[in-house]
Amino acid sequence: MRYKTKHRDELLKFLKKHEDEHLTIQEISKMLKGKIPQATIYRLIASFEKEGLVRKYSIASDEASCYQFVEDEHCHEHFHLVCEKCGKVIHLECDEVNHLLGHIDDEHNFKINTSKVNLYGLCEECQKSK
Known about the structure:
It contains 5 helices and 5 strands. By secondary structure, it is of the alpha+beta class. α2 crosses α3.
């Protein structure tokens, strides 16, 4: 049973506002300027992850995990491009990716868990600012 609280609503609103970014707990806490205790953010993020409201990303094993708000279940059905510099998340929904998934399924009898597929690199803006 989940409880509707002020902190829950505030954090969910914040995550929706930043849905194209992936943020660490520390970044979220800093951006919220202490409005929500960091321990509460950890607890709520874990709850949101179980509910399917956020996705967890790990860029490197030695770095903090990042989280992104997920608007609906369709966000789990495609790849994401994640900018390693600014944290922007781009939803990759195109026929070429669907073709690749079909090929892997048909030719290699392997089903990809697209909710765990993230491609890391630099977004267009960050490439320009190099």
